[in-house]
Amino acid sequence: MRFKKTFFVCLLLQLLTFEASSSAEPVFSHQNNLLTNSSTISLIDPNPNRPKSSTLIKFSIRGAYIETVDLYANSTLWRYELSDRTVLELYIRPQNEYTKQYYLIWYGGGPNENREVCFHYGNEEGTYWYPTYHSSVNAEFPLNPQRNVPRFSLSYLNDPNVVRNEYFDAVEHLFVNTDGIGVIPEVDQPLFLRRDPNGGDPLLCFSVDYVWPYNAPENLANDPSLLDIKVHLFQASTIRDAVDQVIHKSGLIRRPTSIPDEAMFRSPSWVSWNQPDEVMKYPKILMDHGYTSGEILVDENLVPGLNPTSAFDRLVEEIHSNGFRVKFAKLPIVDRTGNSITQYYFTRLQSSGLRTSWVDFSNEVAREWYRLLLRRLQLDNGVDAFAMMGTVEAETVMINNSQQYLQPSDRTVAHFELLAPLSTSNSAYQAFRTQHLPIFLQMTSSPTTVEQYLKSLIPSILALSIGGYSWLSPKPIGLPNPSEELYIRWIQAVAFLPHFAFYTHPWQYSDRVNEITLQFVRLHQAYGDLYVNLAKERITKGTPIIRPLWYTEPFNPNTFLVNDQFMVGEQLVVAPILEAGKRSRTVFLPNGIWYDPKGNRYVGAGYFTVSAELEELLYFKKV
């Protein structure tokens, strides 16, 4: 089947829909707006019984409008010729009876920041959209369609400007909605995102351009395909099916093949930035307060220039002798003062050309040299694992091979992939395309109040979890310093997450706070087998450990706006109180029979008002 239609420029608004005469397959329609130099394309569901409008998803192309359209290959390729002589193609790629995949590519022409593909993500029909990045200030789950976010790079972890309010140190590109639609632009392009309320018709806009922070390819002038806009769309029966298809089956996000060390799921981390003689006392202090296992995080300042002293060896031995593990926190920086290290192992400042102390991961020899430095800390000094801090510098730098990593965050991936084989207990402070690694993501955040952080905690965990990150550890408890009440609510909020860490010690408040904290550390340990089993299911089935309620009940609209609760697998609902002064809250429970820790019985699905004193965490087990 082949159609062709030419539009007359004298019309201000043009509309054309192609219907497949004997098929129930979705079709595309489009509408031109010559005043705004744009076109809107809608994916239409021909099912007459659809409870909402027939439009499954709508997106606009901005910077050009459609002039002609052709259908090829039994209507599985829609080809649009645009007013600026570029071409947009839509390929239909059926996956199975439940899921369809569409591939959008807009090609031809040179750099043009006005050329965008914008998805309409309003919720006037009860449809909600969800991101998969960690937002520490403006945590949105679902997205707020009224937010205006100026254009920014969606792949750069250290942008000090708008990105800090949009995402923080962990970013992925998948967006899903409650109609079962998934949108994921290809990450191997210089991608930018902006969000526009657009007068009540909100837009989520993608564009590409080789400007800062991306390195332009040397052959950019001769290869316009490097500026193609490429987006994958998924249409599934439910939002759960869409997430599972993208995360576990599509190949667009790399799947993990092994889980981290089981000990990481069973006991916490303790952050210690003190001097060696003070760290030496730390294990016994922990044991005196009832904590008998976990890992102690020590700072790289204890080993200047990565040259361990006998004092460091004694410190590691003392920590091990008391049953704790040693994790070494390390930025990819090496002090070159007084060392005969070749300068070519390091990046250079763009402004002056001077060498920095940051290891250049585009240099293969430098990568191996750095790996061996850290491996020596394991073999010679007994370090168990590493906490890998950021790779991307705050100031623009030049690297040895600018063509190897056209996106700056690709160096983050190279850093983590290099060190992941050193230990299955490693953690990292950033995440970008690293779901496949057995590394815990140690979440951080920009400076906020404790109240703001606790409010953003669960939305951020849920966003990262549906983006394929299952090995999650929230920001260490007590950073910044909370009140005694919020310290207790903080430990309750993280007690059922796969891992958590302490920065401020509970006994610094009172014996009562320590007793309550110890209670929840032991509660977490009691569920260690559950976390490990769910981690293994992440490998075999692709299902997340931590889940939004809509993952269990994707047809229930009551679950769509619940972003202050989460599920651990299918059998556990966790609903912490996160505000000072509160002693009760409303909880939504999915279908089934549920029991709280006091033995109270609840029949879901439904809302319940439940009380909880300060020492109590609200969680519910399904029977």
- Strand tally is 33
Mean pLDDT: 87
The low-confidence parts are 1-23
Question: Strand fraction band?
Answer: 25-35%
Termini gap: 54 Å
User: Could you estimate the helical fraction of the residues in percent?
Assistant: 10-25%
**Order of strands across the biggest sheet?**
1-2-3-4-9-15-14-11
Largest β sheet strand count, sense and barrel closure? 8 strands, antiparallel
Overall structural class, as computed from helix and strand content, comes to alpha+beta
Number of helices: 12
Rg: 26 Å
Shape: globular
Record keyword descriptors for this entry.
alpha+beta, 21% helix, eight-stranded antiparallel beta sheet, globular, 623 residues
Describe what you observe in this structure.
The chain is an alpha+beta fold. Helices cover 21% and strands 27% of the residues. It has twelve helices and 33 strands. The chain has an eight-stranded antiparallel sheet, with no helix packed on it. The protein has an eight-stranded antiparallel sheet with strand order 5-6-7-8-16-13-12-10, covered by helices on one side. Strand 25 (440-442), helix 8 and strand 26 (472-473) form a beta-alpha-beta unit. Helix 4 packs parallel to helix 5 and helix 9 (484-494) packs parallel to helix 10 (511-526). The protein is globular and about 75 Å long.
